[in-house]
Design brief:
With 438 residues, the protein is an alpha+beta fold. It is built from nine helices and six strands. The strands form two sheets. It has a four-stranded antiparallel beta sheet with strand order 2-3-5-6, with no helix packed on it. Strand 5 and strand 6 form a beta hairpin. Helix 2 packs across helix 4 and helix 7 runs antiparallel to helix 8. It is elongated, with a radius of gyration of 42 Å. It starts with a helix and ends with a helix.
Length: 438
Amino acid sequence: MKINYIALLILSAQVSWGQQVLSLNEAIDRAVSNNPAVQIQKQQTAIATNNVSKANTGQLPTVDAVGLASYTNNYTDINIRTFQPPPSPDEVSLSEWGVQSLTANVGVEASYVLWDGGAGSYRYQLLSGLSEIEADKQSLIINNIIKGTVELYLELVKIQNQVEILNENVMVTRERISKLRDKRQFSKVSDLDVLQVETSLNQDLSTIDQLNLLKQNLQTDLKTLMNDITDSEYSYEYPENTTTVINTSDLRDQIKANNPELQLIQRGIYLSATELELEKASLKPTLVSFGNAGYFGQRNDVQQLAQLQTVGATVGIKATYRIFDGGSRKIKVQNAKVSQAIETNKLEQRTDELLMEARKQLQNIVYLEIQLQREKLNAETYQLNYEKTVDRYDLGKLPEITLREAELALINSKVTIANYQVDIEKAKRLVGLITGQP
């Protein structure tokens, strides 16, 4: 029985009407550009980048404007020796309430760390590393979004393929029903024959309804990923494979060098090493130069020095070394070493997991390609069997149930071939994402 291609074109037009064609690349672009998590991470990356400054690490001089004013009012008890010669110079005693003293000090003070055991340099490296970590987080988020988009999109392609295959069969079944009804008018077939074909049609229509419901649910997930709040309906096209063939001989090296998640862990190892050096630097002395310039004035009610005013500058160098802190710095050094070891173990563990996942996908590709070729050969047999069964059915030599079995075998073969093709593409893209391919 030949398919009515005109009717098939009409049905295809009806299905596609009101739908937009959404390619996989377009879905990925929209998911990445519109996803709130990506937007938030971009802002976090920008903040971390802005923080990369020597000023934030204490490596630049600091200049402060300083000002001080104070007033005191106290009880004062003073013994003042006179300038009489020894051995027993006279003393003058003075006791008074409400003795006032007024002090004012204004000026500019600058300081600069000459040497801190390299702590400033390590702090700068930490800030740079934190900025790169935020960028790596952004790459990892994007990679996960792409993975989710690919999986959803290709599942939708599989469902759409099944619906199209079943719709083609529905067209053929309806044509068969129409012919059987014509024959029934001439008593060439029974009502049971027509009922059996109508049952087959209803089964196919019920399956199509179930697939369409599943498609709607997956499409809702995809639209959520793309932050698409419209009521748009999409049709999906099989993506052409652009994934580079994977060289399995250096698969581990590719994963370790290019996988976004592993790059993030490696960045953590680098930061752990830097933090260790920073904690070690805290065990060393610090040398700071300083200078100030300004005015100092003081007025006193009761003192030999009733008034003092100075205008000038002071420069100097100060060295500090913490002798005792309860062992807190040594504990921090030990913790930094442990943290570095933890990050290194994480890297190796996650590398092994990703390598295993990539190998599984590559094995799936080999298996699926073998099964695909085998199913294509089976499909030729099913097609030939179906055509011969139709011819004998039209001559009234075979019952409807036999034709239905041949029909289902052909449908299942077509669906299986389409699914294998999509699954191969999905596996290739997942390997590409694991190995960091664009």
